[in-house]
Design goal:
With about 120 residues, the chain is of the alpha/beta class. The chain is built from four helices and four strands.
Amino acid sequence: MVLMFTLTAIVVAAGIFANYILNPYGAWRIALIDPIFRKIEHEHVATPYMLRVAEPETILLGSSRVYMGMRIEQGERDGVMNAALSGATIAQLSRVVKVALLNPRLKTNRMGGGFFRLR
C-alpha cells in the first residue's frame, strides 16, 4: 500500500516537473526552451497564462479572424501578442482584457473582429 502511494507521488511529481521545464502553455517565466519553438494549439487555455507571463506592449484582440489573419505562431513575439480567441464571445474577450490590463507594460490594445455571439 505504501509502495503504491509512493509510486503515485513519484509519477505525479515527475509530471509536474516535466510540465514546469517544458512549459507548453507559457504559464511560467522559465526559459529553458526558447518560446520561439512553442506552437500554441489551445489558445483558450494558453492565452491568459501567456498574457500574464509575457507582458507584451501591444495585444491584438478579437475572434478567429484576428487569430488566423494576424497569426503569431508562438503567441507573443517582439512585444506583440495575438490574444485573439477562435469562436470568442464578448464575455470571453472581456475577461482577456481584464487580464491584459494587469500588465504594467501594456501600451496598445488593438481590437478586430467580425460577428460576435451574445450569450
